[in-house]
Amino acid sequence: MKLSRRQSVQTLAGVAAFAPNPMAARRAPAIRLVVLDVGGTIIEERGDVPETLRTAFANHGIAVSPAEIGQWRGASKREIVRHFVDKQTLTPGADREKLADDIYQDFSARLNAAYQTVPPIAGAEDAIRKLRESGYLVATTTGFDRQITTAIFRRLGWEKNFVASVCSDDVALGRPAPFMIFHAMEAARVSSVAEVMAVGDTPLDLQAGSNAGLGGVVGVLSGASKVEQLRREPHTHILPSVANLPGLLERV
Fold this sequence. Notes:
6-stranded parallel beta sheet, 2 domains, 42% helix, single chain, Rossmann fold
């Protein structure tokens, strides 16, 4: 499977799934590593992240609209906080680093509390199990930091499901940079990007997969983005959810 803008269309569970030229697919190396986004891809997206960010900003005197935050879906949450702090006109001598850290700590505490009850995407756990049983290596990347991610996976008992779990604080730059994906490849000992598939629910997820040059870049409609938003990004497939991923991999 090789990422291409020239795509044919197949139907999967009533939603168009975009695939590359069949001849190119037969020549491509088989996928070995599947890299899954977390929020909106394997964990339900209830709007907690943007609302918690907005509240944390407001608590420190910074007004940020939901639409502005929405443009950063999938990005490192620390990078989001730094971006909006840097945009502000602060009083002379104000410590931007301390302000950004205070806002982030406020956000992190609130999100940890909110995510105590967030369930997995329907079918996600079964999909992960099927992928592992079929011999695929499975990893995650996320715009959450290590503390938040560990709390989610520990609560769900998912800590042993993944060969790597790469967080935004593991890299110098988060999405759309491809570095989290490369870290996952390193941990999984997969050296060829053609053998890797990334799956996510935001344009930044797809941009990161495209920037990494992966063999598969899959958008899912279970999270923050509409199909029209994902179609505008380079991708190989768009699926209703991660629950459809094992079936897709049986056919490619």
